[in-house]
Design brief:
Elements lengths: L24 H21 L7 E2 L6 E7 L4 H19 L4 E7 L7 H14 L3 H10 L6 H10 L4 H10 L3 H13 L7 E6 L9 E4 L5 H14 L9
Parallel strand pairs: 2-3
Antiparallel strand pairs: 1-3, 2-4, 4-5
């Protein structure tokens, strides 16, 4: 397993590939537990009707984002970095993208927006709502959610009931706990990993923040190289 933070991060570096280990044993154990936990979540998602997953389920690399709809840096990633990752890696079947909620507050617009996206997902329109919420650039209130629901052709009564009954709140906070266990204390936070066991075993790389596209590209290419025998092109 590998957990590496980009240069400049104050978080520990954990590795099992000949590099120094600077994290305490408790952090090592937590990372190992989370890697197994996230792997299980990804497998369970594959059977769901609305998986909050973009791209080919068999893509060799998985990118998980822990995010908050009210976060300015999350919006920056959505507008500037995500389109390039989507075009080069997701649409070409090399990376699958998984979205996880990380509301920074226990109540308020960040949580409400996460619920709205989940409620749209109940009607098969998770990504459509997700994209509209970010595209609005911070306008997150009941009237906005209803406007998006209407534009997406959702059943208004079912959507309103879902927003009121809190059926998704526990799952949203579970996502946040999962992100915290990776070491994230804010948003966005990203985890890159091999989707399945590859040569050399599982590898995970954490990216704590909206780093430039080039950081993601370098780490994705490094993981993709692990999925091919030496000398075999990944193109």
């Amino acid at each position: 397993m590998t957990v590496r933070f980009p240069q400049g991060s104050s978080e520990p570096t954990v590795a099992t590939e000949g590099r120094a280990v600077t994290a305490p044993w408790s952090a090592l154990l937590a990372c190992l537990a989370l890697l197994l936990s996230v792997g299980g979540v990804l497998r369970n998602d594959a059977a769901g009707a609305d998986r909050r997953v973009r791209g080919n389920s068999d893509a060799p690399v998985t990118l998980i984002e822990y995010s908050d709809f009210t976060c300015g840096y999350c919006l920056k990633f959505f507008r500037e970095t995500w389109p390039r990752i989507q075009a080069k890696y997701v649409e070409t079947g090399k990376v699958r993208f998984v979205y996880r909620d990380y509301p920074r507050a226990d109540r308020g617009p960040g949580l409400d927006a996460a619920v709205a996206a989940r409620c749209a997902g109940d009607q098969g329109r998770y990504w459509a709502m997700h994209d509209r919420l970010f595209a609005d650039g911070g306008r997150l209130d009941a009237a906005t959610f209803d406007r998006h629901a209407k534009a997406l052709g959702l059943d208004a009564a079912s959507f309103s009931t879902c927003m009121r009954d809190g059926r998704h709140v526990d799952s949203i906070f579970h996502d946040r706990q999962e992100g915290t266990s990776w070491g994230f204390r804010g948003t966005p936070g990203f985890v890159l990993m091999l989707t399945k066991d590859g040569r050399g075993g599982n590898a995970a790389v954490t990216i704590p923040g909206a780093f430039p596209y080039q950081v993601f590209e370098e780490e994705i290419e490094r993981l993709l190289a692990r999925t091919h025998p030496r000398g075999e092109s990944g193109a």
